[in-house]
Every structure is written in structure tokens, then in C-alpha cells.
Amino acid sequence: MPTQFVQPSQSAYLLNEKRQVVGHVSLTGPVLFMPTPTKTIPFEMHSYHGPIPLRRDGQQSRRVPREFWPAFEAWQASGMLVENYECVLKTEHESLYTRPQIV
To answer: How far apart are the C-alpha atoms of 41 and 103, rounded to whole Å?
Structure first.
């Protein structure tokens, strides 16, 4: 059964000896998998930077696949559901994958 994705809190403040904040460390979230019409795209969901698409080797992708953003927006619109680290899209949002037809 899919559950709603909740961004884990993985950050910490760096303090000096006077307990003053001198920095902030923020780690990325878990690796999730976004299904698209042509392939499944792995990405990290970062609490500050947002989604970060990854290459197959787990490193940050320099280019975002064109089908990623429509799928990500559909996932957000459908409640950000996740099952076994795979994003679950509701069927009523499938129209976001296709371009509108001009008649």
C-alpha cells in the first residue's frame, strides 16, 4: 500500500565554542525512483534544493531528462505517494505526460 512521502530531517547546525551558529549541514533524502513513459529515473529529494536527478552510478546528473519534470509535477499533484521507494502516480494525472493536441 502506498504511503505519503515525508522528507526526513537530516540537517545539523555547526556551533563554535561559544555555541554560536557558524554553519549548517544538510544531507539529501533517500533515493526515490520516478516512473516515466520511457524509463525510471532515480533522484534524491533534498529538503532545501528539491529533487536532484541521478545517473545510473548514483552521481548527480548534469542533464535532467525531459520527461522528469512532468512526472515529478504529476507525483506532487497526486499526493507524493511512495511504495518501496518508487513514486506512485494516480491515473487522473497521466495527462500531464502528454503534450496538448492543437486541433
So the answer is: 32
DSSP state of 60: B
CB-count burial class (<10 Å; 0-12, 13-18, 19+) for 65: middle
Q: Please tell me the distance from the alpha carbon of residue 77 to that of residue 95, in angstroms, as a whole number.
A: 12
Q: Cα–Cα distance between 26 and 102 in angstroms, integer?
A: 45
Q: Which pTM does this prediction carry?
A: 0.66
Contacts of 79 (CB under 8 A, 6+ apart): 4, 90
Per-residue pLDDT tens over the stretch 39-85: 999 998 877 778 989 988 888 899 999 999 999 999 998 888 888 88
